[in-house]
Write a structure and sequence with these properties.
mainly alpha, about 575 residues, about 5% strand, globular
């Protein structure tokens, strides 16, 4: 993990990013936008930068849709400017074009630059090429995970081969390709080759540390194996076995995880990073209830207490706005309903939201405005929120965490796929998640931050819905729910985990609220619409062939049916 100033990337890297605005495969691969003197160090900055500078993803994919679908956030019932949850903007899914415009473009160029070096010099860039490959696979997997078939094997070759109508590779083909690429990268990084040129400070994740990159690649292999477990069980189990036998290993602590940490200035501040644009981002009822009832110490790291302090209640009583026998409720964590119909229910609107009271104290009439509903700790997402512009807060973006790895190993152990202690990995995962969020909240300088202590964690682990007890199915639900909660700061991962496991669910320990709009039940989307080729390229036949191929199993649906499923997303 590395601190980096968004505005201090260097002129070469900035010029690379600013010049890549086309969506056309032919223009992508022939426009002279990459400087002939660009080094792998310049190019790695440009590629990694776009992996983390995802403000459009946050505004459209996460705040507008995924966080609301997954009930990680809601809108106040009294809000009037709420974007419809199930009408998808064409601004969503921006990772798709950005993989081709920037991330994959520059990782490919890194490998091309290295391949043109003299043989003795190439040998010193083996690790650099392997790291670029890992970034490329991670980004491509992210794109395919929610789109299905994508151009990959032919899409990034246009600069050298003049291939401007790339075929689409389906996921049954892509997963083995990515596994082989990652496995080869791990072998290179773990080989201990001498005299390797390090990316050093140009690498914003691991500062060029080959051992840590090898671990991250193994964790990614494990994640992708879990995606395949229902479709290709034998292949997935072989990958899992191979990963666990790898000398490169996996993460051993939160300090090794694949995470971006910003500098205190210039990153994740305002504009599209702001989750409150249009409507205050309210805490969701289901998650708040689950966390509060089980004494989850992360509740104060995720959400803010409402405005009904004990002193506010006393003032309202003294001023005649509340009856004298009104008692103070110390809970102060109150979630808003997530279903559109529930939010417009007159009973909810009256009960929840912002309330203004008239109070008379000493003959003087004044107003007190209080939030009944808890709000999200928005400084976790936008450092400028709640007067944070001068707070010196630091932004954290977890991409692959130690806690998630622990929950994967717990699940595999509980299912008998590996012979390890499911309970041990489960408890390690919860402790790691709490530690991670405690650090992220502290760095972001959230409002009313107070550090989590060991006693709180122990109390939480003893709660009935948390303790590792029950039937196998109950234990698997607990693992899945904890993994889901851990992805609060990575909503796309929460979405993927929900699709893979079916948890949280309606009536579960973390209950999902059914969505209704005007009395009709809504189906939560499971993918994005695969973008139609645009510009002057003639790749429509390959696009149409990809759609037809994905429809063969009957789960994909029509191209614009985002409730359909991609290949790995089999029914539970």
């Amino acid at each position: 993990m590395k601190l980096i100033n968004k505005l201090g990337l260097g002129a070469a890297a900035v010029s690379l990013m600013l010049s890549s605005c086309t969506k056309n495969f032919e223009e992508l691969n022939t426009n002279p936008v990459v400087s002939p003197v660009a080094t792998p160090q310049d190019l790695i900055v440009a590629a990694e930068y776009k992996v983390v500078d995802r403000d459009l993803d946050w505004f459209y994919d996460n705040y507008t849709y995924i966080m609301r679908w997954m009930q990680l956030g809601s809108s106040l019932p009294t809000s009037s400017n709420i974007t419809p949850m199930f009408t998808i903007s064409d601004r969503a899914n921006s990772m798709y074009p950005d993989f081709y415009k920037t991330i994959g473009r520059y990782t490919t160029e890194i490998k091309s630059v290295i391949s043109k070096m003299p043989a003795d010099q190439q040998a010193t860039y083996q690790n650099a090429g392997a790291i670029a490959q890992i970034i490329q696979v991670y980004a491509a997997w992210r794109v395919s995970d929610v789109n299905g078939s994508i151009p990959y094997t032919e899409a990034l070759k246009g600069r050298d081969s003049s291939e401007f109508t790339p075929k689409y590779d389906n996921q049954a083909t892509l997963f083995p390709i990515w596994e082989n690429e990652l496995k080869a990268a791990v072998a290179t990084l773990a080989s201990g080759a001498a005299n390797q040129v390090s990316y050093g400070s140009s690498d914003m994740f691991y500062n060029g540390d080959a051992a840590k990159w090898a671990k991250a690649a193994n964790v990614l292999r494990l994640k992708m194996a879990m995606r395949q477990l229902k479709r290709s069980e034998a292949a997935a189990k072989q990958i899992i076995t191979d990963v666990l036998a790898s000398s490169a290993g996996l993460f051993t602590s939160v300090e090794e995880e694949f995470k971006f940490i910003s500098a205190p200035i210039g990153f994740a501040r305002g504009t599209n990073w702001n989750p409150d644009t249009g409507s205050p981002f309210a805490a969701p009822m289901g998650m708040v209830d689950f966390m509060y009832e089980n004494s989850d110490p992360r509740i104060r790291l995720f959400f803010r207490r409402n405005g009904y302090t004990e002193s506010a209640i006393d003032s309202l009583k003294q001023g005649g706005a509340l009856s004298s026998n009104t008692t103070y409720n110390p809970r102060r964590y109150v979630g808003a309903p997530c279903s559109p119909d529930a939010r417009t229910n007159p009973a909810y609107v009256k009960l929840f939201g912002v309330k203004t009271y008239k109070v008379t104290i000493g003959g003087k009439v004044s107003e007190m405005t209080l939030d009944t509903v808890s709000l999200v700790q928005t400084r976790l997402f936008d450092l400028d929120q709640n007067g944070g512009a001068t707070s010196g807060g630091v932004y954290s973006m977890p991409l692959m965490t130690y806690a998630e790895q622990c929950f994967i190993l717990a699940e595999l152990s509980e299912k008998g796929i590996i012979a390890q202690s499911a309970e041990e990995w489960y408890l390690k995962g919860i402790r790691a998640s709490i530690k991670d969020y405690n650090t992220m909240a502290s760095l972001a300088k959230i409002l009313e931050y107070s550090a989590v202590n060991d006693e709180e964690v122990d109390t939480y682990l003893a709660s009935a819905d948390i303790a590792y007890t029950g039937t196998q199915e109950q234990k698997l639900e607990k693992i899945a729910v904890q993994n889901f909660v851990n992805h609060f700061k990575a909503p796309h991962e929460a979405w993927g985990a929900w699709k893979r496991t079916g948890y949280p669910k309606e009536g579960g320990i973390l209950a999902m609220e059914p969505f209704f709009t005007n009395g009709a039940r809504n189906t939560v989307p499971r993918r994005w619409q695969l973008p139609i080729p645009s510009g002057t390229q003639e790749n429509i036949p390959n696009y149409e062939a990809a759609i037809k191929d994905m429809q063969t199993t009957g789960e994909y649906g029509e191209p614009n049916d985002v409730t359909g499923r991609v290949w790995w997303d089999m029914a539970n």
